[in-house]
Design goal:
The protein is mainly alpha-helical and 140 residues long. Helix content is 64%, strand content 0%. The longest helix is centred in the last third of the chain and has 23 residues. The protein starts with 12 loop residues before the first helix and ends in an 11-residue tail after the last helix. InterPro entries: AhpD-like. It comes from Clostridium beijerinckii (Clostridium MP). This is Carboxymuconolactone decarboxylase family protein.
């Protein structure tokens, strides 16, 4: 059970928790839609990054959608997930963490990837803090 009641705003359990602040929920959803609709990265890369972060950020709701793949052959997905893993486990990012990113991505892509990672992390930390569970039913 979530730690606060669901609001009347939003469509998903996550949105209903954030919906106590409707303007924030709407802008948050806009940014989510923007980040996940760009063509910079494949949907597979974004999903593997999301899954990697879910298990490090402790979001039960997000973890229920699947574990990250163990055998990744795509060098871009591998670089992105390794960075996401390191980013979410360590308090500081090292120069060494950037070597694979610099080998695989442009500066524009690195900027967008880190924005995506930060956004997903914030969303998952929000869900974890409020104990959002995959089985949460929306009762308002």
């Amino acid at each position: 059970m979530a730690r606060i009641n669901f609001s009347k705003e939003g469509n998903t359990p996550f949105q209903k928790l954030l919906g106590h602040n409707k303007d924030i929920m709407l802008k948050w959803s806009d940014l989510e839609n923007l980040l996940f609709s760009t063509n910079t990265f494949t949907s597979e890369l974004k999903e593997q990054v999301r899954r990697t972060l879910a298990f490090n950020n402790g979001c039960e709701y997000c973890m229920a959608k699947g574990k990250p793949l163990n055998n990744i052959n795509d060098s871009k997905i591998l670089a992105a997930t390794k960075f996401a893993n390191s980013f979410s486990k360590n308090s500081a990012v090292s120069d060494e963490d950037f070597i694979p990113l610099n080998n695989e991505f442009s500066e524009k892509e690195i900027s967008e990837l880190i924005a995506l990672i930060c956004f997903i992390t914030a969303s998952q930390k929000f869900g974890a803090a409020l104990n959002l569970q995959p089985s949460c039913s929306i009762n308002i």
